[in-house]
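thought: fold this chain, then report.
action: predict
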Amino acid sequence: MDSNEHVDQPASDAARSEEMVERPKRLRVLKSAHVFYDEGNISHPCVVRDISENGARLRFQNPVLLPERFWLEVELDAYKVECQLAWSHGLEMGVSFCSERIETKKVRIQVVKPTLGSVSEDGTGKDGSAQDAGFRPRPKQGPVFGKKR
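observation:
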């Protein structure tokens, strides 16, 4: 080899990290959804486990075969988005979004009602009963082995 010849050297770790594009932040979620294709004639329920602006990780209850492109609808957030299958491993699949989110009709509304005002410090309800607060009463403990009460 001539001393004037240039040999391509692998990039250093510092140079590689500068070239790497940062992935969008993923949010861990647990949202019911479903995928559909064939003009909506075939659908499968799933759960969105994490999501970013570019894609999502889906978990299915049963094994499914999906086409390369399909739609994902998240009813709670009232949108659907066209997806492309990125990877599949068992009951989990990664998808990348191929379109912008399209608003859909909101099917249900998530409501969380605070119950702090109806529960006292000892865990009982307004009338002193555990049933009123939504708690089951604790069973009374019997004697501990080797000790008398």
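thought: worth noting. The chain has two domains: 23-103, 108-135.
final: tokens above.
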